[in-house]
């Protein structure tokens, strides 16, 4: 697989995910009150699915800019960027934890179809939890609101995980 | 040698912590963005900075206040001395209205000098107190030392900046004292091993002394002003056929003495001259 193809695939994925995030999911509110805690994040999937051979520095920077792009549409400059940076930083660590015996095939992306469900679910769960938690920390920005942070993290994790899995089932990307 | 080693270390650090440092740096930027462009978070940020800086300033103030206490206390003592001076001036003026013949009483009789105690003892046979004022502040030997509660002692030796005070708790100290209610007086001495009690001797048996009566200075010795409180009558004891010894509980606790006033009796020189002249004539 050549380099241009990798950039093209990830570029399209980035545009698509951010587009769905900011033009569809941003408008989606299930109901008022408690349901406000349920937020759908699918753009982190772009960070999750970056190829293995991208350096950890590049992943952090891409995470930062992904979050920044989303922030521009959400009008919350810095909040999603903080979460995206954290996710980018955690990705290399989570990959190290979950590394199979034979190592990764570095030319590809860690997709569900390549890595299998038993690898992909924990991988997405851990990183998504990191992302959602970082997001709520940055949003509340107050240690005193730790309860809001935890409730928001759990609720949004459930919502986002479902949404990401739906997307995986629909598109099921190979790379 | 040093440079490659240094570069190598730097390389290792970057390799080991580079991702974290990049992450950290970008998070700082994010937090800056969050605080600069998001009103709710900015409010949290501002209120917590206020909270922390406010507490910091409070703490610093209270600590500084504590260290300033010495100075505050000094100032207060100076002010008290000044007020006592003024009081003496007013007293002399009031006397004028009653006693127009005494032109001299326009003059102030006593001058007070505030001083702080820098050394003190209470459990020796002859206790001395060191104060931080000396001859350059106008202190001379044989001046009385008092506090607002009671009598402390008599200046015994004066240095340039310090003076030694013979405490009431000193066997050599003899102060003339009287019972406030009936005016009977006698020498007051200290013979106990107790820092709270002194003896007032030679009170005649026909004097009606009751426990709880106030004991004051007489002013006869020109060391202390008249009617400075000393203590209260604790017990009476018939020392001989015609005199009482009275145990007096001191008002002033000499164990925790901090600020004192040295009494300068302005007319002392004149009185002493008279007394000396009389003594010379009698020789």
Offer a quick outline of the entry.
With 175 residues, chain A is an all-alpha fold. Chain A has helices at 3-23, 44-48, 56-74, 79-97, 112-115, 117-140, 146-171. In chain A, helix 1 packs parallel to helix 3 and helix 4 runs antiparallel to helix 6.
If you had to describe this structure to a student in words, what would you say it looks like?
The complex is a heterodimer of chains A (175) and B (283). The relative contact order of chain A is 0.15. In chain A, helix 3 packs antiparallel against helix 4 (79-97) and helix 4 packs antiparallel against helix 6 (117-140). The mean pLDDT of chain A is 88. Helices cover 67% and strands 0% of the residues of chain A. Chain A has helices spanning 3-23, 44-48, 56-74, 79-97, 112-115, 117-140, 146-171. Chain A has 175 residues and is mainly α. Chain B is α+β, with helices and mostly antiparallel strands and 283 residues long. Chain B is built from three helices and twelve strands, in the order ααββββββββββββα. Chain B has helices spanning 2-37, 39-98, 268-282; strands spanning 110-120, 126-131, 144-146, 151-158, 163-170, 175-179, 185-189, 197-204, 214-217, 229-238, 243-250, 259-265. Chain B has a six-stranded antiparallel β-barrel. Chain B has a six-stranded antiparallel barrel with strand order 6-7-8-11-10-9. In chain B, helix 1 (2-37) packs across helix 2 (39-98). The longest helix of chain B has 60 residues, at 39-98. The radius of gyration of chain B is 33 Å and the shape is elongated. Classes of the chains: A mainly alpha (175), B alpha+beta (283). The A-B interface holds A 56-57, 60-61, 64, 67, 71, 76-79, 81-82, 85-86, 88-89, 92, 138-142 and B 18-20, 22-23, 26-27, 29-38, 40-41, 44-45, 48.
The percent of residues in helical segments of chain B reads 25-40%
- Cα(first) to Cα(last) distance of chain A is 10 Å
What is the string of helix and strand elements of chain A? HHHHHHH
What pattern of helices and strands is seen along the backbone of chain B? HHEEEEEEEEEEEEH
How would you classify the quaternary structure?
heterodimer
Report, as a whole number of angstroms, the end-to-end distance of chain B: 101 Å
Tell me how many strands of chain A there are: 0
Strand content of chain A: under 5%
Tell me about the largest β-sheet of chain A: none
Topology, number of strands of chain B: 12
Shape of chain B: elongated
- In one word, what is the shape of chain A? globular
Q: Largest interface here, residues on each chain?
A: A-B, 23 and 22 residues
| Mean pLDDT reading of chain A | 88
